[in-house]
User: Fold this.
Amino acid sequence: MAEDLIINQSVSKEAQYQSLLPQIEGLLHGESDFVANMANVAAALKEQFQWFWVGFYLVKGDELVLGPFQGPVACTRIKKGKGVCGTSWAQRTTLVVPDVDDFPGHIACASASKSEIVLPLINDNEVIGVLDVDSEFLDHFNDTDKLYLEQVISILLNQNSK
Ligand code: SME
Assistant:
């Protein structure tokens, strides 16, 4: 496992993902512990993109419970169907929210958060959690983030099943 990531923030978002993805694969290689891998994925994404908050919520019963993350302290539990995270879980789909104030029922863990992307972690056809990313800037996420973050999740879940 490489000890340091090579981070270049002066290129396009797409190029940043293309540089980071193989490094995340390397970081997770040979490690099957899911919590450890989620923690390193959150840290790698935070280091590359300097997002306000990035982390995981995990399905436990009828709730999402806070998992490994990077950023300020956050809400611990979110019910299925509630907020952006609970809606992504219920609808089993990625949600890109350009302005969190326009999302009915958005859960404001931090007032600084202005836009958000949430992606479900689907393993064996079952949602086991979500990846949540928050930005302090409006309209910060788009289809590029959706495309590459889905690949990050795929790397994470593949590693988990090894
Ligand atoms: N805003 C999220 C809650 C989680 S925090 O952003 C870390 C939501 O509406 O589900």
Summary: The beta strands are 53-60, 63-70, 77-79, 95-97, 115-123, 126-135. The two ends are 17 Å apart (CA to CA).
